[in-house]
Structure formats: C-alpha cells, structure tokens
Amino acid sequence: MDDIYNQMIEKIIEQQEDIIGPVAVQRAKLVDELKIDWPKHQISISGSPKTAVDDLVKQYQVLFGQIAVETCKEAVASIINQIPESERPKSLK
Amino acid sequence: MDLNKNSKHILELSVVLFAVLVGFWVFISLTNQNANYKLAFGATYGLMALLGAIFGLLNANKWGGRKSALGLTIIFLSVGLLFAEFGQLVFSYYNIIKSVEVPYPSLADIGFFGSIPFYILGASYLGKSSGVKFGIKKPTAKLLAFLLPVFALYNAYHFFLAQYTVGNSSILKVFLDFGYPIGQAIYVSIAAFIFLTVRGSLGGIMKNRIMLVLLAFLAQFAADFNFLYQSAHSTWTNGGYGDLMYLIAYFMMTISIVYLCSPLKESSKA
Questions:
Q1: What is the pTM of this model?
Q2: ipTM of the complex model
Q3: How far is A67 from chain B (nearest CA, A)?
Q4: What is the dihedral of CA A34, A39, A41, A47, to 10 degrees?
Q5: What CATH code is carried by the domain that includes residue B103?
Q6: Cβ of A21 and B71 within 8 Å?
C-alpha cells in the first residue's frame, strides 16, 4: 500500500512540475512527512501517508486554490482506485 | 502580492520609467510641442516593453522556463514584448530617418505582427497554468469557448473588414489588414475565456498574478484595437493618445511579468 502512496505523491509532483517547474519540488519539500530526492525520483514517507498526501495537496492549494486540488485529483486518477475508499486522502475524495 | 528584493527594484524602476514617460507625454500634449518631441516619445516608450521582456527572459527559469507551463507563459509574453519593441524602433526609424509618418506595411510589422503569435501562445499557456481545462467541462464554458471567438471575430469584421476593398493593395498589406484584427481577436478571446472559466475556482497566491496578466492582455488589445481603428480612419498621429495606450499596455504587461516571475516567500507555507 505504501508504494501506491509513493506513486501518488510522485505523480502529483510530476503534474505540478509541468505547470510550475522546480517550484513544485520546493513546495513538496515543505511537507514534514516527506523526504524527497527528486533527481532520483525517490520519495520516502515518515508518518501517515494519508496526511502526507493531504499536506502535499495543500502546498499546491496555497498557490492555485481549488484548481490545484483538481489537478492533483487528475494526476492520481489512474491509481487511486487501488486504495480502499476509507484509506484515501481526504483532499482527493 | 509579495515581491522579493530583486522584483521590487524592477517594479520601482518600471513605475519611475512609466511616470517619466507619461510626464513627457503630458508635457508635449499640453504645450503643443513640435513633431520632433512626439517622435522622440514614440522612439523611447518602447523601453518599457524592453524592460519587461529582459526581466521575464532572465527570470522565467525560476518557474521552470521552457519545461513548465508557467515558465513558457513568461517566455512567450516576454518575447511578445521584445517583438513589440522591435516594431517600435523600426517604426521610429521610418518616422525620424525616412520621414514616413505611418510606415505600413513595413519592417516594423515584423515586430508588431510577430508579437501576436507570442501573445496567443502566452495566453494559451496561461490557460494551462490556471487550470482552464477543469473549467471547460462545464456546459456554460463550452458555450463561452464558442461564443467568445465568434463575438471577437465578428467585431474584428464589423470594425475593420466589412467595408474592406482590396483595390491595388499588395498581398502583404491585405494579409496584415486581415491578420492583425483576427490575431488580436484570438488572444483576447483566450484571455477572456480564461477569466470567465476559472475566476471562481482559481485561488491562492497565484490568482491575483494571473488576473493581472489577463488585465494586461485587455490593455494590449485596447491599444491594438485603437491603432487599427485610427489607422483605418486616418486619425493616427505619432505621439498621440494611441501611443499613450501602448505605453500603458507595455507597463501593465511588464508589471504582470514582474509579479508572475517573483518567487514565493517561505511564509507562504501551507
């Protein structure tokens, strides 16, 4: 399951990187639960993965508001079904 | 909207340059100076566009440069300004050196007409940056996507093309006569569409920055529209209010690029 969360986070950052470039990674590094080595695309989560994803989405929401949430939802659309409804991050429901 | 030190300096420089140029324009307009002053104004106010273009090109990398939608927005808007300044300088060259009052068509059109595709590209990438694709799913947005260009093109036709006769005009002149209003209709439609579809859902730090760019597009369109209108009615005068409109448009585009390029403060943490 952790692997899916890692993939979600990677996809969200990639999608945001297409829009705002390196700022996407800078914002992701502000999330306390995440440790990111972006050149290697390595992500490790410490603590709750749900909280990590929610906090990451919030970082982008600060920039673009609800539009950023929609962008994040779109980024994970192909893999979010692999997580049971109850385990999904609130921000992506 | 917060700015870092570098952006603040450029913003201050833009405001000072704008104030000086507006002051110069008011002086030559109120005191009825001879044509040389007006030509001097025409030759210098493009500096505002140059300032915005250079700042944008030097700072687009902060947002990913050509690798991101926002970076490309900044690059295309900056190149558009650079083309506009090229047009201004060549136009002034014809005015001052060759004594041609309205050089059209001329090499100046490489700059003026050349800026239009870059503004269209800039507006398109701005749409991508601001998430316009999420707004377009709504039925009203689909209707707007159809109506806005139709309305803009109808206006272009109504004001500039309805009474148009080709006569002995060169192919280049006919192409530009059609190309200018159609090109301007395209970028202003895209800008208006972005505004109408995302104004409700776009938020956060970037909202005002993006709205400022949209406002700059409107100012650019007003200046372009006025130029075509005055040219069509033979009322264009160098150093007149039409040039002031261009100065305002360049100023707005420059400050919108400054705000767009400005990096985020750490205090903007979620």
A1: 0.93
A2: 0.93
A3: 5
A4: -10
A5: 1.20.1070
A6: yes
